[in-house]
Amino acid sequence: MVLMQGGDYNNSSDIDILVLTDYKPSQFYSVLKKLSNMTYDIELDYNVILIPLINNIKSYNDEADTIPFYANIQKEGVVLSE
Description:
alpha+beta, 4-stranded mixed β-sheet, 3 helices
């Protein structure tokens, strides 16, 4: 699942892209590296800062009520892909 969360917009805003997967944490770095490479051109073309994040879907579901960032994503986030 891929979710986007942007919050309040201003000139220094960024867009968080959260990828939820069944990967193990030891695999996250290689996925984040690929995501960062993919978002680079979009950032340049549209003058926006994209912050790719990855987490295990089970960990996300377990922590969604206790971590404010995750609670905010559940409240205001937009699902880009399931």
